[in-house]
Prior knowledge:
It is a single chain. This protein is of the alpha+beta class. It folds into 2 domains: 4-215, 2-Layer Sandwich (Alpha-Beta Plaits); 234-425, no CATH class. Helices cover 21% and strands 34% of the residues. It contains 8 helices and 23 strands. Strands 4-9-1-11-10 form a 5-stranded antiparallel β-sheet. The protein has a 5-stranded antiparallel β-sheet with strand order 17-21-12-22-23. The chain has a 3-stranded antiparallel β-sheet with strand order 13-20-19, with no helix packed on it. Strand 2 (70-72) and strand 3 form a beta hairpin. Helix 5 packs across helix 7 (377-391). Pfam families: RAMPs. Residues 16-188, 260-409 form the CRISPR type III-associated protein domain.
Amino acid sequence: MTKLKKVYYQLKLSQISPLRIGNGENDISDNDLMCDSRGIPFIPGSSMAGVLREKYEKLGGKDTEKIFGIIKNDEATASHIIISDAICPWKICDNVKSEFRNVSISDYKISIRDGVAIDKWGVAKEGHKYDFQVVETDVPYFCILEWSGDDEEYENEVIEGLDILVKDVVKHGIQLGARTTRGYGKMKVEARKHQFDFPNCIDEWLNFNPWSESDFSGEKVYLDNEDKSEDGQFDRIEVQFKVIGSFSIRVNMERIEKAPDSVVMVNKDDKPVVPGTTWAGVFRHHMQEILSHIMSDNNDERTALDCLFGRDKKDNTLSKIRFGETVIEGGKSYVLTRNAVERFTQAPKNSALFTDEFWQGGVGTLEIMIDKGKMSKLQRQLLEVSLLDLNNGMLTFGASTGTGHGRVEVMKLNVNGMNYTENLKSGSIGFLEGLHEH
């Protein structure tokens, strides 16, 4: 006799980088954040399902259409798994007082970031300025996966399917929301699993609360002492650097009176950050500039960077290179007031007095991840030269780069876990030859 089974996975998601999930409205910014009735951000189950399904397919999982369902033409198949929204708990333990307290909007830092497209001269393109909301928090999100099936389906869909998927997201984490290739939406994942075999445990199932950590047996799907090898899908480059002079990733303060015209972008811990979008922009612009000097206008290789960094046009190619968000440790801020002057008389211009905040000094780490086998030899060489120029102060980032800001010196370079700092410092080419090319 075939027995019915139910399996519950409780995923506990902890934010590593800012999350950007829009609700389709533009009341506060051009792209407002998805929030519940309390004003607290959450991640829709549809977003969770899409990311988990894509990961499952990349892992070569069995019976994808049975587990996640399918809609094809007029035919639709129900999913064997129910995926909840990823929401925050109503209460959380206060580590200081060891007491449970209600979660409130004050536990979340919701900020507005600016986005802009620039031309080859580094000037903002007309009509390409926009802003969007992001959220940062130390409060975890909880998502429940509920699978139902019989003994035969259990072997194929759980043991050889969902267990492998959940182990992978615990091992490598998960990225959710928009601009994941630019460092947004990184999550650390913990998982617990509990299963019921019917009809033996109906009473236990009726009293079971999948949102409660204590209701799980405590069994971790993936244990900390198991293999922690690198994600096999990516080549990884880590660049540890120190800031030479100062820099500024500007946040416009026009909404606040009696504040500088712009301040340095900071995270929830008030530490300055360099977003992945900034890194992607300066590397792409620098590599394109190099390419323009070595290739003719009608050469097909001129489009090499579109294939690597992605396209925003009709074909919408996803970026194959990923830049993480860099947090700057150390250093201090200062405010600089300056004004524009007339070209010939050197007299100050009217309404041309600016006060900006800059960040002096500090160290950080730039993380670059590239899909294995998706980079050409030319793209690799362009990236090598750009890293050399980064160390030499010729590839700069942030505002006012034309006046000496945004320079760094590389302290350490790791490529897939191997140290290539000396190769970079000597100015030799070839230190990225270990990357997987197509």
